[in-house]
Structure prediction request, 223 residues.
Amino acid sequence: MSKPLLSLNDASIFQQENLVLSNISLDIFEGDFMYLIGKTGSGKSSLMKTLYGDLPLLKGEGVIVDFNLNTLKEKDIPFLRRKLGIVFQDFKLLNDRNVHDNLLFVLKATGWKDSTKMDAKIKEVLEKVGMQTKGFKMAYQLSGGEQQRVAIARALLNDPDLILADEPTGNLDPKTSLEVMSVLEEINKSGKTILMATHDYALILKYPHKTIKCDGEKVYEVV
Prediction:
């Protein structure tokens, strides 16, 4: 059996001293698409933040893309995030530059140097999300759905082992949500592993995948 990309064993998640989730045991394997559901305030975002190093894992065991969450140091976090593609609800694009330069900024920040390779990579990820003609557009000129597509393209830049999508359709209308979801589906079909926090049950019905739920400080699989 292949080794999981994410493995939590008896893990508890805290926000400062407050226990948010306890006794989580969870494995995600290469090629999986898994939903993380639960009401607002149930701990979905806290779990996501723990996975990308924003919150420390204080109790239990956790390994993600070969990084030990128990011993993760501040200096390790940028390297962890290069192996993760993170998609946020609020896009987090830089409004003072166009789409191409938003992506170029990330490549330069993660150590890319060769401008020909950078341009080729930007072209490649924009094609994957159907935004290949929009590289010249300023971020604020795009619709919400287009901005989220660019945010997904940005998450793909460093060829991540695992994509963490935290409510990626949370700010989008139902039609646009379906369009963004179909992009994520295609990315998963190409072999990428995705963990997606959502409370959009219409999407889950249309695109069924394994689902885990945060509820009452616990995380369990929904059958």
Observations:
- The radius of gyration is 17 Å.
